[in-house]
């Protein structure tokens, strides 16, 4: 039997833009209440005012170690429980490795990998105690195939893909489902970091997808019967050709 999201409490990181915002809107439409975690306080204020009572703002800079550690306790203080954690916040850099400065590499690996591991670690005891929960991570198609012009980004997404698969196997026995969604290029603020000629070529060939096409996949995963764990949904433009 399909799961309903009515009454569920979800937390979505990176919720003020792109895929995280689309997922928030889709989860609310499906009946959930969503704690929107983002560092962009102003955007969160505007969005939660628009979305109503079932959107709750939580301003957290996940790159700040102390704030990151407080994320799950602060959500639990607000809502009392977390049924769904969508670890979605992430950043992007492309370009040759030799062109990537140390601070940028560190920031990307911290946000795309370490923060996800810490957020998952912090929510697990709560979900194990309740014997139920869902964790979804936004990975990337770059976590499945090496994309030559984005070695650091691809490396971060391969790392988190491996982490998700191991956690899925560990947490299954506790009634916790762990899956990931792996999009191809999505029209979002993140693409501002793409080289302009690559972005233009992708637009010209129609090889970009909408954030809502990714959030549809997330809601699909979460609404399957609890007998089923969707491990990974790769969501690509039809004419994706890398
Ligand atoms: P986006 O830039 O539109 O949104 C990212 C959100 O994360 C923003 O609201 C931003 O404020 C927030 N954020 C960034 N750093 C943060 C921090 N330190 N603390 C808290 N919040 C922070 O990007 P998007 O395209 O929606 O990307 C979301 C996820 O999807 C990322 O993990 C990204 O790697 C992945 N992804 C994106 C694409 C794409 O083409 N856009 C493709 C595959 C995977």
Give a brief rundown of this model.
This protein has 242 residues and is α/β, with parallel strands linked by helices. It has seven helices and seven strands; from the N terminus they run E-H-E-H-E-H-E-H-E-H-E-H-H-E.
Characterise the protein shown here.
The chain has one domain (9-185, 211-234): Rossmann fold (3-Layer(aba) Sandwich). Helix content is 45%, strand content 16%. It has seven helices and seven strands, in the order βαβαβαβαβαβααβ. It has helices at residues 18-29, 41-51, 65-79, 102-130, 151-171, 196-204, 211-222, and strands spanning 9-13, 33-38, 55-59, 84-87, 133-138, 176-183, 232-235. A seven-stranded parallel β-sheet has the order 3-2-1-4-5-6-7, sandwiched between helices. Helix 5 links the parallel strand 5 (133-138) and strand 6 (176-183). Helix 3 runs parallel beside helix 4. The radius of gyration is 17 Å and the shape is globular. The N and C termini lie far apart (37 Å). Residues 14, 16-20, 38-40, 60-63, 88-92, 111, 138, 140, 183, 185-186, 188-191 line the site of nicotinamide-adenine-dinucleotide.
